[in-house]
Write a structure and sequence with these properties.
The chain is an alpha/beta fold. The chain has 2 domains: 9-207 and 331-393, Rossmann fold (3-Layer(aba) Sandwich), CATH 3.40.50; 235-239 and 245-316, formyl-coa transferase, domain 3, CATH 3.30.1540. Helix content is 39%, strand content 15%. The protein has 18 helices and 13 strands. The chain has helices at residues 18-28, 57-62, 76-87, 100-104, 108-114, 139-146, 166-187, 200-205, 211-218, 253-262, 266-269, 277-282, 284-295, 300-309, 320-325, 327-331, 373-379, 384-392, and strands at residues 9-13, 32-37, 51-52, 55-56, 66-70, 91-94, 119-124, 195-199, 235-239, 245-249, 314-316, 335-340, 344-349. The protein has a 6-stranded parallel sheet, sandwiched between helices. A 3-stranded antiparallel sheet has the order 9-10-11, with helices on one face. Strand 12 (335-340) and strand 13 form a beta hairpin. The longest helix is centred in the middle third of the chain and has 22 residues, at 166-187. The model has no long low-confidence stretch (mean pLDDT 96). One of its GO terms (molecular function) is CoA-transferase activity. InterPro entries: CoA-transferase_III_domain (IPR050483), CoA-Trfase_fam_III (IPR003673), CoA-Trfase_III_dom3_sf (IPR044855), CoA-Trfase_III_dom_1_sf (IPR023606). Keywords: Transferase. It comes from Methylobacterium terricola. It holds the Pfam family CoA_transf_3.
């Protein structure tokens, strides 16, 4: 069974998180992803966080199903190889600072002239245009300027970060969406290739809901509210008797009535002041206090059992240990076994989303640096002597 992107060739000219996560998603669904890395160094992600035999566990996940080719982009012969790869690709994904590829002679004007149907995803801090385009921008800056950090954390503490690189990931997802839309245009004969300009800042800003119109029309500046969802009541994180927390989302009208009945407050369930979200939000603090009194008298499990019986959306806050042990995660193949060097087996995340007819698959984990250099060059028509000559010149490794 082949993936829906089988036959699509993607050239990755990126490192670390944003561009590589985008191409990982494409590779999981059948695309041939050729990742260009610097000889001797490779993607810095190879050495980030926890390691196995000198290589990052994150690398094995982030680069699964990809082919690694070690090319010296400072070499004319190396650049010629990349141009040839781009000429045969459907998509190029890059996350250089704007102008970086142009300095190398690999800008859109050059590559699109070689391949008019090429789709080029360009991920950067601020986008390819505008007064901030030349500033360096990592995911942390995108999260800060995109608005999410201002709204994250407890109001009594400084703004917090989400525990993962959410800014990079959001940019990756927007890049994939843009690439697929542009590919559809090409493959259905509606037009040629184009640039997908993705900004880290704008990718975060795009998920900030009604932040702007609330400010513009009402002067409302949404800020940090801890575990609560402001203006949507009740939806919060509540403490339990055993020191844990229960997340309860009782914010639709019928669910609110079921929640109040389940916790022994039918008077609030029938109170006309709380028939809709607007009325409940006016007294959010009181309702949260009522729910907190109830959860404090129960363990997490006891509270969840009552809420499940009442069909109220609720859940415990999972650690990674909870995730790995959870039967639902395992039933949906969200925890997969993978082979690493040294005959080591390790659990890895599964694939999202689930496609019924052409599901994604893991064919191999992140490869060694330059593991596919020879095979990729051979596919381009280089024989053994020509590949050896490129190595002697320092163009590839």
């Amino acid at each position: 069974m082949s993936g829906p992107l089988t036959g699509i060739r993607v050239l990755e000219l990126g490192q670390l998180i944003a561009a590589p996560f985008a191409t990982r998603l494409m590779a999981e669904f059948g695309a041939e992803v050729i990742k260009v890395e610097a000889p001797g160094e490779g993607d810095p992600l190879r050495k980030w966080r926890k390691m196995h035999e000198g290589t990052s566990l994150w690398w094995y996940l982030q680069s699964r199903n990809k082919k690694s080719i070690a090319v010296n982009l400072k070499s004319p012969d190396g650049l010629a190889v990349v141009k040839q790869l781009a000429g045969n690709a459907d998509v190029v994904v890059e996350n250089f600072r704007p102008g970086g590829l142009e300095k190398l002679g690999l800008g859109w004007d050059v590559l699109s002239a070689l391949n008019p149907n090429l789709v080029m995803v360009r991920i950067s801090g601020y986008g390819q245009t505008g007064p901030y385009r030349d500033r360096p921008g990592f995911g942390a800056i995108g999260e800060s300027m995109g608005g999410i950090r201002y709204t994250t954390g407890d109001p009594s503490t400084p703004p917090a970060r989400v525990g993962v690189s959410i800014g990079d990931t959001l940019a990756s997802l927007h890049g994939v969406i843009g690439a697929l839309m542009a590919l559809l245009r090409v493959k259905t004969g509606q037009g040629g290739g184009q640039v997908i300009d993705v900004s880290l800042v704008e990718s975060v800003f795009n998920v900030m809901e009604s932040l702007v119109p609330e400010y513009d029309l009402l002067g409302e500046v949404r800020t940090r509210t801890g575990g609560a969802l402001p203006g949507i009541t009740p939806s919060n994180t509540y403490p339990s008797r055993d020191g844990g927390f229960v997340v309860i989302a009782g914010n639709s009208d019928p669910i609110f009535r079921r929640l109040m009945t389940a916790i022994g407050r039918p008077d609030l369930a029938e109170n006309p002041d709380f028939r809709n979200n607007e009325g409940r939000s006016r007294q959010a603090a009181m309702l949260d206090a009522v729910i907190t009194d109830w959860t404090r008298g129960r363990t997490v499990t006891e509270a969840l059992d009552v809420l499940a019986a009442a069909e109220v959306p609720a859940g415990r806050i999972y650690s990674v240990a909870d995730i790995v042990a959870d039967p639902h995660y395992n039933a949906r193949d969200m925890i997969l076994e993978a082979d690493l060097p040294g005959d080591t087996r390790v659990k890895m995340p599964g694939i999202v989303p689930k496609l019924s007819e052409t599901p994604g698959a893991v064919r191999w984990q992140g490869p060694a640096l330059g593991a596919h250099t020879d095979s990729v060059l051979a596919d381009l028509g280089f024989d053994e002597a020509a590949i050896a000559a490129l190595r002697q010149k320092g163009a590839v490794a």
